[in-house]
Design a protein that fits this description.
This protein has 344 residues and is α/β, with parallel strands linked by helices. It contains 12 helices and 8 strands. Helix 6 packs parallel to helix 9. Strand 1, helix 2 and strand 2 form a beta-alpha-beta unit.
């Protein structure tokens, strides 16, 4: 199996030809073989309603199931599909990078490949982009769908903290969004390896309009987002957009220094007054508090150092194992070829 390194972003993302409005749909996929055929059929039907030519960019993030086989089968029947298979599971955020670097459209729509981002919303998003002149059309969750209480609470706390620390309103934000070519090119200029797509998009500050949607249930399979993956994304999101945790360490140090001075003054006074208490449990308790705080502080500093370490290694964001590049990658909606799911 041939392994290739990703080319520089500017050589991969070439705009569509003058006079056309090509829409690029990016689908990062992981273990979505059971969902994919039906979902692609729904996406093509929705794109047909936009009246624009389009391309489908499918990124297989090292799926161990038959996702790549399904992609290959669909690509043989539908020339508008371009696909990349990563050599291993690099994570959704880096799979998104792979898609953005290959998008050729005048606009790009990023969607989850599990069917929870409704394809029926695509015509409305394209229409908003065309009529409002906005650079980004963001689909905002008004209902999170079937999630456990712990998932909903953790998401609420994460966005509450991130909103306060970053200064951006990310409440209800999702990766389901349309970006025009100007926004895509600006995003591609950000070359960090610890990527948080929705936060980086908000940071750019382009004109954004919002459209509400309800998260649809999965048609098959189960989510691959474990609590550990969510925790990693949360750490990436916070450390990417705020240095406040580091400032908090300094503040905590100053507070404990004041406590130490006051406690030292009290101890000296009691000693001089011959009223010193043997054992002094308060000192032991304070040492435990300070020790715990130091460990937490080291963890916070370590998280930022880990980000610096990842950046200075300068490794590629991902490695490509296989790819499908087709000549006819601008299939107009009027000439859609049937897929296996359509034939069924």
């Amino acid at each position: 199996m041939k392994t290739e390194q990703p080319e520089p972003a500017n050589s991969l993302a070439q705009p569509a030809a003058p006079g056309s409005l090509l829409i690029s749909i990016i689908l990062p996929l992981y273990n979505e073989g059971a969902n994919l055929r039906a979902f692609l059929s729904d996406v093509r039907t929705a794109l047909d309603a936009t009246g624009h030519p389009f391309e489908l960019i499918l990124i297989d993030d090292g799926s161990p199931d038959d996702t790549w086989k399904v992609i290959s089968d669909e690509a043989r029947l539908f020339p508008a599909i371009r696909a990349v298979r990563l050599s291993r599971n690099f994570g959704k955020e880096l799979a998104v990078c792979a898609g953005l670097e290959r998008a050729r459209g005048d606009a790009m729509v990023l969607m989850d490949g599990d069917g929870q981002h409704p394809p029926a919303l695509l015509p409305d998003m394209v229409r908003l982009w065309e009529t409002t002149g906005a650079d980004i059309v963001e689909a905002v969750k008004i209902k999170r769908g079937a999630e456990s209480l712990s998932s909903k609470v953790s998401a609420l706390l994460f966005y509450l903290i991130l909103n306060k620390l970053s200064g951006f309103d990310l409440k209800g934000a999702s990766d389901f969004k349309l970006m025009d070519r100007k926004a895509i090119n600006a995003w591609l200029e950000m070359r960090e390896r610890n990527v948080f797509f929705r936060g980086m998009t908000a940071w750019m500050g382009f004109t954004t309009v919002r459209i509400p949607f309800e998260v649809a249930p999965r048609s098959a399979g189960k989510s691959s987002w474990s609590y550990l993956k969510r925790l990693r994304l949360a750490v990436t999101g916070v450390t990417a957009f705020s240095s406040f945790p580091l400032q908090l360490v300094t503040l905590a140090g100053a507070v404990f220094f004041v406590f130490a001075v006051l406690l030292g003054a009290q101890t000296l006074y009691l000693k001089l007054a011959d009223r010193a208490v043997s054992g002094f449990a308060t000192v032991i308790l304070l040492e435990l508090i300070i020790g715990s705080s130091l460990m937490i502080s080291l963890g916070i500093v370590g998280a930022y150092l880990a980000r610096i370490y990842e950046e200075v290694k300068s490794r590629p964001r991902y490695v490509v194992a296989q790819s499908i590049e087709q000549k006819h990658d601008r299939m107009p909606p009027a000439s859609i070829t049937a897929s296996p799911s359509d034939a069924a």
